[in-house]
Amino acid sequence: MKLPASTEWALHCATTLAQVEPRRTVSAAQLADYYDLPAPYLAKQLKALAKAGVFTATSGPRGGYRLARPPSEITLLQIVEAIDGAASPFECHEIRQQGRGALSPEDCRHTCAIAAAMADAHEAWRRSLADVTLADILDRIPSWAPARTRSLLTES
Amino acid sequence: MKLPASTEWALHCATTLAQVEPRRTVSAAQLADYYDLPAPYLAKQLKALAKAGVFTATSGPRGGYRLARPPSEITLLQIVEAIDGAASPFECHEIRQQGRGALSPEDCRHTCAIAAAMADAHEAWRRSLADVTLADILDRIPSWAPARTRSLLTES
Q1: Which residue in A75, A123, A128, B61 has the most C-beta neighbors within 10 A?
Q2: Chain A: nearest CA to B43, how far in angstroms?
C-alpha cells in the first residue's frame, strides 16, 4: 500500500503556510519553486486541500493559499485525507460469501471478524494522525526555521 | 492507499487453516475452490505465506499447506506483511532538501517531524494488527463454523 507522493508535498506546503504571517497568502508557483515540485500537479493538490477546507484560496494578482484555520486546528489526518481520501487500505470483498465455503447472507449479518480487525487498525492509524496538528509540527522544527521560510518566500 | 485484494484471501485462507486439525494439510486447489478464487494467483500468495514462515508447505499427493505455528502465535500483521511487505505507505522523498527552500544536509540530520509523525501512525497500524492473532479471530466466529469448514474440506 502506498500513499501518493503528493501526500508529502501537501504536508510540507501546509507546514510552510503555517510559518507565514496569518493573513499572508502564498501562490502555487511560490510553493512549487520552494520545493522544486511540478507546478501543474502541485496546483491540483493545493486545490484539493482548499476543497477539503484545509486551505483558503484567494484569487487576484496577490492571490494564493493560506491556512483555513490556525495551525493548532489543522491535523495531519485532515491533510492526508484531503489528498488520498478516508478509505481504509483494506477492501473487504466478502469472499466469505462465495465459493464452496460460502456462508449464507443470514450468517453474514455481522461484520466479518477479519474486516473488523482491519478497520480497527485503520482507525488506530487515523487516530495517530488526528493527534498531531500543524502547531505540533512547528514545535518540532528548529526555532530559526519560520523566519527563514518567511524571508525566502518574500524574496521569491 | 490500497492493500492488494489478495490480502483478504490470505487472511481468510489462514483462518480456514486455523480451523482444521493441526497436522492436516489443505491444498491450494481446495482453498481456491473454497473461496472461488483464481487458483494460479492464489497459489502465488500461498507460497508467499510459506516463504514468510506463516504457513508450512508440504509436497506430494497429499501435500498442501498448514499453519506453521498454533493460531495463537500467528498475528494478522504477519499475514498482511507476508503479502504486502512491511513498508510504510508514506514515502519520504526529503523534499525539504530540494528547491528554493532547500535545507542543508547538516540541518537534516534528524528525521523530519512530518516523516516521524507518519512513521508513528504506521506503527500504530502495525501494533493494532500485531495485537490480533488467528486464535482471536476463531474466538469471534460462530461456534459451529470450524466443524462446517472441516466437513466441507473433507468432501472436496
Answers
A1: A128
A2: 16
CA B26, CA B47: separation in Å to the nearest integer?
Answer: 13
Q: Could you say which DSSP state residue B102 is in?
A: P
Backbone region of residue B49 per phi and psi (left: phi > 0; alpha: psi in -120 to 50; beta: other values): alpha
> pLDDT tens digits for B3-54?
999 999 999 999 999 999 988 999 999 999 999 999 999 999 999 999 999 9
Q: Phi and psi (nearest 5°) for B54?
A: -90, -40
Distance from the B60 Cα atom to the nearest Cα atom in chain A, whole angstroms: 24
Residue B55 and residue B73 in contact, taking contact as beta carbons nearer than 8 Å: no
Cβ atoms of B22 and B59 closer than 8 Å:
no
**Considering only CB atoms, which chain A residues are within 8 Å of B136?**
113, 117
pTM of the predicted model as reported, rounded to 2 decimal places: 0.94
| Other residues' Cβ atoms within 10 Å of the Cβ of residue A2 | 15
Mutation for testing the A interface, residue in B118, B126, B134, B152 having most A CBs under 10 Å: B118
Locus of grid cell 535545507:
B103
Place of cell 524574496: A155
Alpha carbon distance B35, B32 (integer Å): 6
Smallest CA–CA distance from B2 into chain A, residue: A89
B85 CB neighbours in chain A (<8 A) are none
